[in-house]
């Protein structure tokens, strides 16, 4: 800010002003001129007064040098002098040359400042545009990376990888090794048997997976299905030590379950001197269920046969595959006459060798049961029935005191029809068991022409007595 110029002497200024305008003030030519003003503009309301410059303070005169030196902070309004033209009778605004010079100088300064401001504004706007473009490019890149990491962090990607890498190609070795809890294996099977069983649950089936009822974004779980049946479950958890960018989690397989159920079992009945193997493993007494069957029946052979071999029954379960059962006789050879129910895994073997006279033994059993039926119907004497039994047999006493004999209906023309052997078991060359079914056809005395049919189902135990077959016991 420039220093304000010193104040000039007011008295000197007044004398100079008076001398400068003396001619104008005192010429008197315009005293009688009527002044006209544009309509609507300012005009005096009263008669103009003649100014007395001698008794008034003179107007200060500001020179160009003063204007150049007087650079105040506040703007000084320009001084405008109106000259009256006598010929045109109107006021003409006139700007003194001394007052116009500062305006030109200030106008030039404002033009220079405006140009600099515009340049600065253009540069600032350009920089701002570049900054916005850079920011938007970074923001879009961030969004793309964020979306990519988010998609990578979804747990179903890990389930897809597990499913496509192991279950669809049915890599049973890898699946078995990934199981959280291995299936319990019995003494008759191996890991390969378990893998074969697991494979059978998926073979020739459509595999898929779905979320469990307990699924959440924090604890994802999936069921594994084969043709719509659930065969396993996969559980995923967040890796506590590793993360993707933007703090997205990395998932790992926490648990893998395969729903294996050992549904196969076996039940085997053989003579006591036989050997049984399941999948090549010899059964010991820990699988022995009982030996009571023949022990109970032994009373039907005593006292004539005492060298009977007991039957023993084995039982086992916890197998995944149908067991392979091998029965060896007392000589270590595969047993004959083995009855196998492979659907229920029930096996049995008769005594061996199968008697050479089995046909004759069965025929004797049919005759003996027929005689017993005819005795009950009072168509056979006591002596004839006794010829089929061992001496002093208690069952003869039971037959004689059978209440059916006392009140049996009178009849005639009795015949034995439809006889058959329903069960046969030879325990040795001197003892066997036989179940016989037959029918008595008889004509009742009060009946019609059609015969009356009386069925008999009898279980007898036969022994060799003095070289002949005799009934020693009856099971009712």
**N-to-C SSE string, H for helix and E for strand:** HHEEHHHHEEEEEEEEHEEEEHHHHEEEE
Shape descriptor reads elongated
Low-confidence stretches: 1-5, 69-76, 79-105
Give the strand order of the largest sheet, numbering strands 1, 2, ... along the chain.
Answer: 10-11-7-14-13
**What kind of sheet is the major sheet?**
5 strands, mixed
- From the alpha carbons, calculate the radius of gyration and give it in angstroms: 66 Å
Number of helices: 11
What's the average pLDDT?
Answer: 80
User: What portion of residues belong to β-strands?
Assistant: 25-35%
Helicity level, as a percent range?
Answer: 25-40%
Q: How many beta-strand segments?
A: 18
Structural class: alpha+beta
Give the termini distance in whole angstroms: 143 Å
Write the layout of secondary structure elements.
Layout lengths: L9 H17 L37 H6 L10 E6 L4 E6 L1 H56 L2 H13 L4 H7 L12 H12 L4 E5 L9 E6 L2 E15 L5 E10 L5 E8 L3 E4 L2 E2 L5 E3 L1 H6 L13 E9 L5 E4 L9 E4 L4 E4 L8 H19 L5 H5 L7 H7 L2 H4 L4 E18 L2 E14 L7 E14 L2 E8 L1
């Amino acid at each position: 800010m420039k220093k304000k110029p010193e104040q000039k002497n007011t008295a000197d200024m007044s004398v100079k002003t008076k001398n400068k305008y003396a001619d104008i003030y005192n010429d008197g030519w315009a005293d009688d001129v009527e002044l006209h003003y544009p309509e609507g503009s300012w005009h005096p309301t009263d008669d103009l007064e003649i100014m007395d410059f001698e008794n008034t303070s003179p107007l200060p005169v500001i020179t160009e040098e003063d204007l150049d030196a007087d650079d105040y902070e506040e703007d000084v309004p320009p001084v405008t002098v109106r000259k009256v033209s006598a010929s045109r009778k109107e006021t003409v605004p006139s700007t003194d040359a001394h007052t116009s010079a500062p305006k030109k100088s200030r106008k030039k300064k404002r033009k220079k400042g405006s140009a600099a401001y515009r340049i600065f504004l253009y540069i600032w706007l350009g920089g701002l545009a570049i900054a916005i473009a850079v920011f938007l490019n970074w923001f879009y890149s961030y969004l793309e990376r964020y979306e990519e990491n988010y998609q990578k962090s979804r747990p179903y990607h890990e389930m897809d990888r597990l499913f496509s890498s192991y279950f669809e190609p049915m890599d049973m070795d890898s699946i078995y090794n990934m199981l959280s809890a291995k299936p319990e294996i019995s003494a008759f099977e191996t890991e390969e048997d378990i893998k074969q069983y697991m494979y059978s649950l998926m073979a020739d089936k459509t595999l898929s997976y779905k979320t469990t009822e307990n699924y959440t974004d924090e604890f994802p779980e999936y069921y594994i299905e084969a043709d719509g049946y659930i065969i396993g479950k996969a559980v995923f958890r967040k890796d506590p030590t590793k993360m993707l960018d933007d703090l997205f989690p990395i998932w790992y397989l926490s648990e893998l379950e395969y729903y294996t159920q050992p549904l196969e079992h076996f039940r085997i009945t053989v003579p006591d001197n036989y050997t049984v193997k399941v999948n090549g493993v010899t059964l010991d007494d820990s699988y022995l269920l009982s030996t009571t069957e023949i022990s109970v029946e032994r009373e039907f052979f005593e006292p004539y046969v005492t060298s009977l071999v007991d039957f023993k029954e084995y039982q086992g379960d916890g197998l995944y595959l149908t067991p392979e059962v091998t029965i060896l006789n007392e000589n270590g050879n595969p047993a004959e006459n083995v009855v196998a129910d492979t659907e229920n895994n029930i096996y049995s073997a008769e005594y061996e060798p199968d008697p050479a006279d089995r046909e004759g033994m069965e025929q004797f059993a049919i005759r003996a049961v027929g005689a017993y039926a005819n005795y009950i119907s009072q168509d056979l004497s006591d002596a004839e029935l006794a010829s089929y039994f061992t001496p002093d047999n208690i069952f003869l006493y039971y037959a004689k005191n059978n209440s059916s004999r006392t009140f049996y209906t009178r009849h005639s023309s009795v015949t034995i029809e439809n006889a058959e052997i329903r069960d046969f078991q030879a325990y040795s060359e001197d003892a066997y068991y036989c179940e016989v079914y037959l029918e008595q056809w008889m004509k009742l005395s009060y009946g019609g022409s059609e015969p009356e049919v009386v069925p008999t189902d009898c279980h007898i135990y036969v022994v060799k007595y003095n070289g002949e077959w005799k009934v020693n016991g009856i099971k009712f």
